[in-house]
Amino acid sequence: MSKIEKVTKTTDNRFLNMYDLDVVTKTGHKGLYHVASRAKDVSDLKLNTHVNKPDGVIIYALYGEKREQVVLIRQYRFSIGGYIYEFPAGLVDEGENYHQAGVRELKEETGLTFHPIEVDEMYSRPYFTTIGMTDESCAAVYGAADGVISRNGLEDGEEIEVVLADRMEIRRILKEENVSLMCAYMMMHFLYEDPEKPFGFLHAE
Q1: Looking at the whole model, is its pTM more than 0.85?
Q2: Which of 90, 135, 152, 185 is the most exposed place for a label (fewest CB within 10 A)?
C-alpha cells in the first residue's frame, strides 16, 4: 500500500491552504503530492484525524406553494473566470451543526428562510467533493424555503444571482450553462421526480 512519509504546510491562508506530501507509492517510488485543505494545520488534516467532519454544507431547497421550484444561485467564480449554477452553500462555522449552517447560509446568500427536514443519515452525511486535489467534504441539507429574495447578506466578494428554477428552466440550464457536478445530479433528481411527492427520492414526506 502507498504511504505518506511527511506532510508540510506551504501556505497560511484563512479559508484554504496547500500541503505538500512526501509519498511512497505501492511499488516503492518516492514522489510529491499536493493537497488543498480547509485544515488550519497538519494535525487537523483528515489524513491524520481520519474523521470526516464536514467542512461545508450544500442546500437543496424547494420553493413555492407546490414546491415546484428549486433554489439555485448563479455565481461568478474566479477559478473559471465566469458564472456557474450551484446550490446555495457555505462553510460550517465552529460550534454549528450543518442544519444550522444551512439555515444561516441560505439567508445570507438569498435572503430566504430555510426549513430543513429530517432525512436518513445516508442522504446527509458528509461526502468528499474533489478527492484528487482536496480533503474537503460537504454535507447536504434538504427542505423548503420561503420569504423574499434579498442581496443584503452578501459579502463584497460574492457576486450572486438567485434563481428559482422550475423544470423547464432546469432543462435549459443542464443543456446550456456551466453547472457544478453536485448541483447537476440533484437537478436531475428533481427533473424526473413526481411533482406530487416533493423529496420523494429521499423517501420523505
Answers
A1: yes
A2: 152
Burial class (CB in 10 A: 0-12, 13-18, 19+), 82: exposed
The answer to whether 55 touches 16, Cβ cutoff 8 Å, is no
* Whole-number Å distance between alpha carbons of 64 and 70: 9
Q: What number of other Cβ atoms are within 10 A of residue 154's Cβ? A: 14
Q: What is the mean pLDDT of the chain?
A: 94
Instruction: Check whether 158 has a pLDDT greater than 90.
Output: no
Residue (of 152, 61, 159) closest to 102 by Cα position: 61
Nearest to 73 by CA among 168, 176, 178, 191: 178
DSSP collapsed to 3 states, 74-88: EEEECCCCEEEEECC
Contact 190, 70 (CB under 8 A): yes
pLDDT in tens, 63-118: 999 999 999 999 999 999 999 999 999 999 988 998 999 999 999 999 999 999 99
